[in-house]
Amino acid sequence: MGWLNIYAATYSEDHQSLFDFSQSYGKQLLWIGTALGLGLVILMLEERFFSTFSNLIYFGGVLLLIAVLIFGKEIKGAKSWFVIANTISLQPSEIAKYGTALALSKFVGEYNVKMQSFKSQFQAAAILIIPIILILLQPDPGSVLVFCSFIFAMYREGLSGNILLIGLGAIVLFMLAIILRVSSIDLPFELILDGKYILIIALTAIAGIVFWLIKNYKQAKFIVFGVLLICIGYIMSIDYIFENVLKSHHQDRINDLLGVTFDPSGAGYNVNQSKIAIGSGGFYGKGFLQGTQTKLDFVPEQSTDFIFCTIGEEWGFIGSFVVISLFMFLIIKIITIAERQKAKFSRVFCYCAASIFFLHFMINLGMTIGLAPVIGIPLPFFSYGGSSLWSFTILIFTVIRLDSERKYLLG
Amino acid sequence: MNDYQDRRYILIAIFLVVAITYIFRLFYIQVIDDSYKLSANNLALKHVTLYPPRGLIYDRNNKLLVYNEAAYNLMVIPREVKNIDTNEFCKLINLTREEFDKRMVKIRKHSTRKASVISESITAEEWSKIVESLSQFNGFYGEERTVRKYSSSMAGHALGYLNEVSPSILDRLPYYQRGDKIGASGIEKQYEKELRGTRGIAIKMRDNHMRIKGSYKGGKYDTIPKAGFEIKLTLDGNLQAYGERLMQNKTGSIVAIEPSTGEILALVTSPSYDPNKLVGRGRSEYYNSISNNDSLSPWFNRALEAQYPPGSIFKLVQALIGLEEGVIKKSTGFICDKKPMNCHNHPAPTNLLKAIQFSCNPYFHDAVKLIIQQGKSRSIFTDSQLGLAKWENHIASFGLGHKLDVDFPLMKSGNIPGVDFYNKLYGKRRWAYSTIYSLSIGQGEVLVVPLQMANLAAIFANRGYYYTPHLIKSIGKNDSIPEKYLVKNETTVATEHYDAVIDAMQQVVEADHGTARSGRIDSVEVCGKTGTVQNPHGEDHSVFMAFAPKNNPEISIIVYVENSGFGGTWAAPIASLMMEQYLKGGITDTLKEERILAADFIHGINIK
User: Is B1 within a domain?
Assistant: First the structure.
């Protein structure tokens, strides 16, 4: 199904042969074939292989990440690809993703590791941080987010739920700070109140109310006060991070998403075109190969990051609904599989896989409909690209392989 | 061991919330909201811009000065460029490989799917050679546009040129699109709105293979482009061309005005540039060669931007103010003791006429002292302030010290030092006439631009009023010009006082001792006044102001020749030739003409 979409996205009259390997849909067919072959290989491996070689794969992935920084080819401002002989390109972060999932599963799977303890948390974080830093250097924010998704798996294994809440809080504060960045209030005496101070004053007020409500708990007061200080520090640093760490096109995209700026022909061009393409699909869609928006190449990157436009335009709301349902079915299925694992290693790995799928799904779809920032990240099994297809196939088949092993293991 | 088993439901719930949000969002944009469907419609329609022809420009005698010629822009859509022989292509379009690559990089940066200009203003002749083989090169096509053409190389500054619109203009003026041309100087800039016309749009339908399938709804929503208005200028093409010829190898300017209307007959600035070389493919080379290599800065429009001290010509205005204020009479005489300013040897200035004729410095020092210090106050400081305020008011009515509302984008205002000026310079009540007397003979801080001086000549010709100088004679079919050019501006000096000064101006040219004997024209009564602008950097600037004939004047003129010496030597004969050309349509004194044409103050060859 994914392949048919790439075919539709890049379809043009000049190339009639389905198996013309110079065309991307032809190439993708080749990728699908090899991916299936790879799947078979994985099915034939012993379960023990994954846990034994997990650290090796992890370090291999990390080495490749270092290598790509040195030898990689710069595509669209990020050094994240190896290009072999001009035709095949490989993204090592995909391998690192797999390796990290394995290594993390192995670590958490060890009997003496408890995610509640600070030491374990620290060690798990270390496993994550190394590849994240290397990918940040490329830079490739999409893949970084995928690594962050492992927090979901950690949460299942006992990581405090507060971490998720803090993460959510950080995102909300970040969005508020960016939205308020451009606004200011003029006060008398020629004082100008910047957006970030408005936010800080609002937070302080909230803290004050909480203070008043919990006047009898001295300890809680300290915590509230501490949280407030951290929040203020965070807000003060957002400006700096936004201006100096993020690249300008990322700034533009975030501004566009949050409605700070509106520029349908500049930073917002992709998203606007994408929404038009999806919106024009209507309820039933225009039919296979009938999309005009995607056919006329109005949507950039439509065979990779914006592949969902083709679905939206040609298959309409029904098609979109089916695709989303399929993804949800897949993710929930993986979670169900995870829960029936007896080995902790297998369970954690399945959760990691589910998290990866979810994050790709959330960001990729979200950006095509204007709900998430535009970050180059493929839609599993739909987007054109060998590395990602391979890596998703490997993930799925590893899950299947681990699952088939469960009856031979003791809890 | 599965202490946290229930957490799976929380995770599934999070995932489902996101999925359901997305489904709602999709339902909204795909089913409920119509705006995206409409947008999609727009995209399947192609809007083809129809460019209007830019208005033609004529001179006062209906001689065509500026017209349009077909030219082609070579366009490229980078993503459609496939499998081309780049070297072959560069040869075809006459670009070096490096230049081609450089432009492609820039274009790709802008957009790979939108068409951009890769080579502009290719002439029809060149285009015919390119177009035959263009089909071999995917992604390139031609777009017909027009370029400005000039019937001669004259009046470059007055006519102006076009530029591609800059990003800042694109931001400010939504009418313009990337790649459009806009008037960047001169008449082209001043009357851009009238000249450009209005673009039209034809809406074509496209199928999903980009093929155009005819007009959208039978052309119901198409708009026809409206051609730009024709503009007729007040310039006299022959006179302008002649003026530029006379000024060859000289720096300076000539401005000639028809006194009865304020119409500018000639606006010569030298050196100038050839407007024809500022269009088409040699443009940037020519532009750079002028900008970088020419120390005489041909971009500088001396007629409106150069500010000089007025020199002796200013004495005429002083005389008029003196008469109006009643502090001198025609018969007033002073002694020329060569103090406090030096003077040349001349008969005694026993009356105003002689003083003007001999351009006596001490005479005007004394006369202006009577204007500035009229004895209305006991303190000479207060007295000077009262007097100068009055004087300032008179001077302003002569169109000096401020910009004239000419229809030209650039003009300097000159400088007339007044009460505020000296208060700032010396402090309040710390100056008197003895501090500022150099203004009496048009030196010191006084500055004027040639156009103001030509206007001054018109004021004398009219005996006391002027119409704001302008270049526009008519726009489009009707003869209407802006109201402001039909307003009579009166000076503060009564008409009867002018006769005395004008008689003196005639003597300057006609009398045996006059300083401008070289300004005479056979059988025409010429009135004029020479000026010599002291130039600390080299030879003085030669200036002559005149009008003719004395009764019912038809032309008033100012001539500046930089670094050439006395006003009578060079500026006066040039002015007389210009006036004779205009009044009689030809030259009788060919010797005079030859001498002027041969003179060269640029390359260091001096012919006396």
Answer: no
What is the Cα–Cα distance from B461 to B558, expressed in whole angstroms?
Answer: 13
Domain boundary among B213, B229, B245: B229
In 3D, which of B137, B191, B123, B142 has the Cα closest to residue B162?
A: B191
Q: Is A72 exposed, middle or buried (0-12, 13-18, 19+ CB in 10 A)?
A: buried
pLDDT digits 0-9 by tens, B18-64: 888 888 888 888 787 766 655 555 555 666 777 888 888 888 888 88
Domain of A83 in residue numbering reads as 45-148
Give residue ranges of B with CB < 8 Å to any A CB.
1-5, 7-8, 10-12, 14-16, 18-19, 21-23, 25-27, 29-31, 33, 35-37, 39-40, 43-44, 79, 113, 206, 208-210
| Weakest-pLDDT range from A110-119, B354-363, B425-434, B519-528 | A110-119
Question: Could you please report the per-residue DSSP string of A144-191?
Answer: HHHHHTHHHHHHHTT--HHHHHHHHHHHHHHHHHHHHHT-EEEETTTE
Whether residue A355 contacts residue A395, with contact meaning beta carbons closer than 8 Å, is answered with: no
Are A281 and A408 in a shared domain? yes
Round to whole Å and give the CA distance between B241 and B253: 13
Candidates A279, A290, A411; nearest CB to B30: A279
How does pLDDT run across A286-342, given as a tens digit for each residue?
A: 666 555 555 545 555 556 677 788 778 778 888 888 888 888 888 888 888 888 888
Residue A21 has pLDDT above 50, yes or no: no
Provide the residue range defining the domain that includes B271: 237-598
Sign for the pseudo-dihedral over CA of A363, A368, A370, A376: positive
Name which of A281, A292, A324 is nearest B22 (Cβ-Cβ): A324
Over residues A351-405, the pLDDT tens digits come to 899 999 898 888 888 888 877 777 778 888 777 766 777 788 888 888 888 887 7
Give me the number of domains chain A comprises: 3
pTM of the predicted structure, to 2 decimals: 0.57
Say how many domains are in chain B.
Answer: 3
Tokens of A198: 């408005």
Residues B223 and B247 placed together within one structural domain of the fold: no
Let me know whether B225 and B327 are in one domain. no
- From B229, B251, B274, the end of a domain falls on B229
Question: Which token pair is B152?
Answer: 């001669």
Strand partners for B475:
B231
Closest Cα of chain B to A147: distance in Å?
17
Please give the sequence-ordered ranges of beta strands (E in DSSP) within B391-526, or none if there are none.
465-467, 472-475, 488-490
Residues B221 and B259 in one domain: no
What local confidence, expressed as pLDDT, does residue A85 receive?
55
Residues of chain A contacting B19 with CB distance shorter than 8 Å: 324, 327-328, 361
Residue B592: which CATH number? 3.40.710.10
* Interchain contact, B18 vs A362, CB within 8 Å: yes
Tell whether the torsion through CA atoms of A172, A177, A180 and A182 is positive or negative: negative
Q: Are residues B388 and B537 in the same domain?
A: yes
All residues at 6 or more sequence positions from B194 whose CB lies less than 8 Å from its CB, including other chains: B55, B228, B229, B231, B475, B476
The predicted-structure confidence for B264-277, as pLDDT tens digits, reads as follows 999 998 888 888 88
Instruction: For residue range B230-267, list pLDDT tens digits in order.
Output: 888 888 988 898 988 888 888 889 999 999 998 999 99
Cα A165 to its chain centre, rounded Å, is 18
CA distance B498 to B511: 19
Q: How far apart are CA A211 and CA B564, in angstroms?
A: 88
The predicted complex's ipTM stands at 0.79
Q: Domain for residue B20, yes or no?
A: no
Question: Would you call A150 an interface residue with chain B, using a CB distance cutoff of 8 Å?
Answer: no
What phi and psi values does residue B184 have, to the nearest 5 degrees?
-110, -15
